[in-house]
Specification:
Elements lengths: L3 H5 L9 E4 L2 H10 L5 E5 L16 H7 L3 E4 L2 H6 L4 H13 L3 E6 L11 H12 L11 E5 L16 H18 L2 H6 L2 E4 L7 H5 L7 E2 L7 H11 L3
Helix pairs in contact: 5-6, 6-7
């Protein structure tokens, strides 16, 4: 089986960036071993303060000192199980930007399209409140990940969103960004799709011009599956 380093070699570093979001415990070791400019690392979460008496929390300053370049914020599991609100996520986002981390902001509706009467409302609320008071000059350090909760592989009955529906939601988010900031900035902002992405369907999303990448979860934990996904995106 190929190694990750071999799998990323065909990728154009100017067009494609691979970001590994490791549990905090393993970040230091992975960063020491990584020798590829095509692989960066992210924290799976951070706190909204860089210092203080907040036992057990990981600050954005800690992530930055380790060498992480990115942090994932607003993942649906943290919203659901840890009770994170858009206000809390907004505070974390501001703290992460202050420490010069790039933020992957997760957004997604709760119910599937068949049951959904408020999907775009949820997306609009999440985007507007998540980016509250964020300046246009900071938008280049923010990546939006459209991740419908019902499509995430760890949820019962999960299935990937259809490429057409995912594209519609991503275009809606880009339209909102244009209204909040400007159309040129909205077009430059990277928007990913996440939700039951695997080697069999990754090209359905990654190869679409309006989709800037994918946020892969469960499938990325399988080494051979992760390498297959890397091989497939190099074909786009």
């Amino acid at each position: 089986m190929k190694s990750y380093r071999e799998a990323v070699k065909p990728l154009d570093a100017k067009r494609t960036k691979v970001v590994v979001a490791s549990p905090f415990l393993f970040l230091r070791g992975l960063l020491k071993k990584n020798q590829s400019e095509k692989i960066s690392f992210a924290g799976q979460n951070c706190f909204w303060r860089s210092e203080g008496a907040f036992t057990g929390e990981i600050s954005p300053a800690m992530l930055r000192q380790l060498g992480a370049e990115y942090v994932i914020l607003g993942h649906s599991e943290r919203r659901k199980f840890m009770g994170e609100s858009d206000e809390m996520i907004n505070g974390k986002l501001k703290a992460a930007l202050k420490e010069r981390l790039k933020v992957i902001l997760c957004l997604g509706e709760t119910d599937s399209p068949e049951q959904n009467s408020k999907g775009y409302f949820e997306l609009k609320k999440g985007l507007q409140e998540g980016l509250k008071d964020i300046k246009a000059s900071n938008l280049g350090d923010i990546i939006v990940a459209y991740e419908p909760v019902w499509a995430i592989s760890t949820n019962p009955g999960a299935r990937p969103d259809s490429p057409d529906n995912a594209l519609s939601s991503i275009l809606y988010l880009r339209k909102l960004l244009g209204e909040m900031y400007s159309r040129p900035l909205a077009l430059k902002t990277k928007i990913l799709y996440g939700g039951s992405v695997n080697s069999k369907n990754i090209k359905d999303y990654f190869c679409q011009e309006a989709v800037d990448g994918v946020l892969a979860g469960g499938a990325s934990l399988n080494g051979s599956e992760a390498i297959k996904m890397l091989e497939h995106i190099s074909e786009c």
